[in-house]
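lol ok so funny story. i was supposed to be doing the assay writeup but got distracted and ended up predicting the structure for this chain instead. priorities right. anyway since i did it might as well share w the group, maybe its usefull for someone
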Amino acid sequence: MISLKDKVALVTGASKGIGRACALQLAERGAKLIINFRHSGERADEVVQMIQNKGGEVLTVQADVSQKRDCQKLVTQTLERFGQIDILINNAGVHVESSIDEVDEGGWNRVMDTNAKGIYMLSVLAGKSMREQGRGVIINIGSVAGWFPRSVNTVYAVSKGAVWTLTRALAISLAPQVRVNSVAPGIIETDMTSLDDLERRNIVQESNLRKRIGQPADIAKTVAFLVSDDADWITGQTIIADGGSSLV
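and the output, tada:
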């Protein structure tokens, strides 16, 4: 297992799903964690307890990454507690499904502010600290929806397409001290993607080359590699992690 001992990792949207899995995976490898959540305080506390039970160091910070003042709070409290930020996982995101003619301005802004603007603002603020300390890694969680939009997820797909461009732009702007990559999951079994319907579950399972349902841990392990020194030559890239899926 690749060690992340003495690294400090800030994970947004870490109370559940992929963010939760990333936090637990990085903690298992020795990183000190900042668990960000917006609403799910009780679930964030569960993650904290799991990390502390294994002797890990962890801090929780409630913040809405769509707001610049909250992004600044995240960075400030992380630096006050641990003195550095080595890893930033931009995972927080919202999903809206509606036909293109039903999307209102409020829905558009809510998705874009969290999924795109939030990544930009927090990366700039954390990236400044990383450049000053001479090192850092940022991972943005995107989605294959950014390449393969459906008629009912236009806004979400646009926001995730922006993640691809943001990743490249941030990698260029923050180089050479900071590496920036993104991971684009396919269908992963989380609260955001319900697979309770057996027929739907079977379709998803048979649609990928691995012939199983993708789990948050699959993405977390990919992230853990990308933040490690073993991935030092990888930056500005988006890694598709979908089990070789044919679903769009």
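Residues 8-241 form a domain with the Rossmann fold fold (CATH 3.40.50.720). The chain has one domain: 8-241.
back to the writeup now i swear
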